[in-house]
Specification:
This protein is an alpha+beta fold. About 35% of the residues lie in helices and about 15% in strands. The protein has a three-stranded antiparallel β-sheet with strand order 4-3-9. A three-stranded antiparallel β-sheet has the order 10-13-14, with no helix packed on it. The chain has a three-stranded antiparallel β-sheet with strand order 15-17-16.
């Protein structure tokens, strides 16, 4: 039921609510093997319900039932990983199945019985025996204060459940042998002949082609097409190892005067809590800002950002704007360009804009970054109008190859 009791504009999680944290993925557990082989790790989607609230508030009640609070409270069980069975090693991290679900985010300033209240859209981890959980965080969703629309990621989560079943088969990442061999040859050519040698240039082109082919393989997987909508922290990354890179939908370097959070980086005003590793990323193919779908994301985002800046600063080059400190966009503007780029580069994923925005805001707002926070305009990669035209043709080619429709 919708209880219409809110903290910071979000419904408070309680035992009487109808909320759930659905299809947290992957909950990787040791599972029954094929004949002869030992137990194998299989990723499952895991779901937990607010009706299983335990150890909630004792004196503060909503609809006569206990309320969830930071760390102390939990959902007593989660479901989805039962095929792993109790007879094997169960969760890779926790050693259990059907474990508890804990919130890992909460209201910063609404306190119940001395602890922070937890709310609609706060993040949870699942299948706990103790900390840490066996799944990466996914949103808990009840109704919101503005119209009670429910979970903004409901449709995207449903796609993951449908397209990634059976999990063991469909969630596997494509083979990266070609990429590894190409990168090895590129490194050897550079060491032997030099960075600008014909041999190294040829090997580099072959490596980029290997990443393009990997992007094609990902696009042909309905499971990975659906998983694209679920953002991952930069570290620890939930992207396919070697073939994919976490791309910050709101560019990490935009929150710093120089660098992107490493040694010597100085955060911009209001961005001091930002952490590059923890910020949400989309899994894109390619190791850099010019390769495969990772490069396409940079092209669309950077071109849109540069166009916006040139309209605000007529006749000025990017270097002039940087020198005059007018190379600024708000977090909202940067966020919107990132979300638009997802739709352009990954149309078959059909990611709901409201889901991507909810995931981005869930992290950034907790770091004190709001829609009006000033960030640095980031223009990297191949950014000209011709590059955008070329990128569009590449998306069309890949989309046609993989079926052409949102899935």
């Amino acid at each position: 039921m919708a209880n219409q009791v809110f903290a910071n504009g979000r419904e408070i999680s309680c035992k009487a609510a109808a909320g759930q944290s659905a299809a947290a993925f992957p909950d990787t557990c040791w599972s029954p093997p094929p004949p002869i082989a030992g137990p194998v790790p299989v990723p499952y989607p895991n779901t937990a319900f607010s009706s299983d609230t335990s150890n909630g508030t004792r004196t503060v009640h909503i609809t006569d039932k206990e309320v969830m609070i930071k760390d102390t409270s939990y959902f007593s069980t989660s479901t989805g990983d039962e095929p792993a069975t109790n007879a094997l090693g169960q969760g890779l991290v926790t050693g259990v199945i059907k474990g508890k679900a804990y919130f890992v985010a909460w209201s910063p300033d609404v306190i119940l019985e001395g602890d922070n209240a937890v709310r609609h859209l706060d993040m949870m981890t699942h299948n706990h025996a103790s900390a840490p959980g066996n799944t990466p965080p996914w949103l808990y969703a009840d109704s919101g204060a503005s119209g009670g629309e429910g979970d903004p990621c409901a449709d995207d989560k449903k796609k993951v459940e449908e397209k990634c079943d059976p999990w063991k088969e469909k969630s596997k990442c494509p083979d990266t042998k070609k990429i590894q061999e190409a990168r090895k040859r590129m490194a050897e050519a550079k060491a032997k002949h030099g960075d600008n040698s014909p041999e190294h240039i040829k090997a580099k082109a072959a490596t980029e082609k290997a990443f393009e082919e990997y992007a094609d393989a990902i696009a042909e997987s309905e499971c990975h097409t659906a998983l694209r909508c679920r953002l991952s922290p930069y570290k620890p990354s939930k992207c396919c190892k070697t073939g994919q890179t976490g791309h910050h939908l709101v560019e990490a370097s935009g929150f710093f005067k120089t660098g992107r959070g490493g040694e010597g980086s100085e955060p911009l005003p209001g961005c001091g809590k930002y952490n590059t590793d923890k910020a949400p990323c989309i899994c894109a193919e390619g190791p850099s800002q010019t390769v495969a779908t990772h490069g396409l994301m940079h092209t669309f985002q950077a071109n849109a950002t540069l166009t916006k800046m040139q309209k605000r600063n007529p006749g000025k080059t990017l270097k002039q704007m940087q020198a005059e400190n007018t190379d600024k966009v708000t977090y909202k503007e940067a966020k919107e360009e990132g979300v638009k780029a997802v739709g352009k580069v990954f149309p078959a994923s059909g990611c709901a804009e409201k889901c991507l925005i909810a995931q981005l805001d869930d992290y950034h707002n907790k770091q004190g970054i709001d829609d009006d926070t000033q960030t640095k305009a980031v223009v990297t990669g191949r950014t000209s109008d011709k590059d955008v035209e070329k990128a569009g043709k590449e998306v069309e080619r890949r989309n046609t190859r993989s079926g052409g429709n949102p899935r």
